[in-house]
Design a protein that fits this description.
This protein is mainly alpha-helical. It has one domain. Helix 4 runs antiparallel to helix 5 and helix 5 crosses helix 6. The chain is globular.
């Protein structure tokens, strides 16, 4: 399958059983209770595993304990991969605020614009790192799914890079660009829904968010197995 076929297949995937999408949406709505948030991650990971082994329908919403554990694993992997860019962005923002306060309190002649510009540059570096890491992180989670949830598989960097090499770096970049295009389109739809009081937000959280997560699971899985 080429990237266009992968994207088309992934866009159809959540419609294989829309009742499960709605149930996942309910978990999204109550994610402020923390545990449902991990169940969401766990179910999306379960869908990723199912897609990697060739299942084209949404998996059953069962084994809640297993989903919770898998959700924790995905969270840990995400934390490890993104901690450095997040820290760089945080430091950049914090330093920017501190610079402004220092300039105002000490009455120095340092240009606030120059100070903020310098610190903002640091934050931009963090954002750039995050953008670069995202596709590698996706392949890392897919690698963990391939090994049936083995946490260490997400950190076998040489194996993950070798896997990307077999898939093709060009295909990975095209996959990533198409992903951003789809996200942009869905983002526009989400912005429109966000303007509709109550009903718009319910539709957004109940349907759009779970749809997007399940699309991403299928989209990532099909790329991961595309070298076979």
């Amino acid at each position: 399958m080429d990237i266009g076929e992968i994207a088309t297949d992934a866009l159809r995937y959540p419609f294989s059983d829309f009742k499960k999408v709605i149930i996942l949406g309910i978990l999204f709505i109550i994610s402020f209770l923390i545990i449902p948030a991990f169940l969401v991650l766990g179910y999306v990971f379960k869908a990723l595993k199912a897609c990697i082994v060739g299942v084209s329908e949404l998996p059953d919403l069962d084994d809640w304990g297993g989903m919770f554990v898998d959700g924790l694993k995905v969270f840990v992997v995400q934390l490890v991969y993104f901690i450095i860019p997040f820290l760089i962005i945080f430091v950049g923002i914090l330093a920017s605020i501190a610079s402004i306060m220092s300039i105002q309190s000490e009455g120095t002649f340092i240009s606030p614009t120059a100070a903020i510009g310098t610190i903002t540059g640091v934050a931009i570096i963090g954002v750039f790192l995050m953008i670069v890491i995202i596709p590698i992180f996706a392949m890392a989670v897919a690698n963990m799914a391939y090994y049936n949830g083995e946490l260490g598989a997400a950190f076998r960097f040489s194996e993950i890079i070798d896997k990307i090499g077999k898939i093709g770096w060009v295909d990975l970049i095209i996959w990533y660009v198409v992903l951003w295009i789809i996200f942009f389109i869905i983002g526009i739809v989400s912005s429109i829904l966000g303007l509709i009081p109550v009903i718009g937000w319910i539709i957004l959280i109940l349907l759009v968010y779970p749809y997007l997560y399940l699309f991403l699971a299928r989209y990532t899985a099909l790329l991961y197995i595309s070298d076979k």
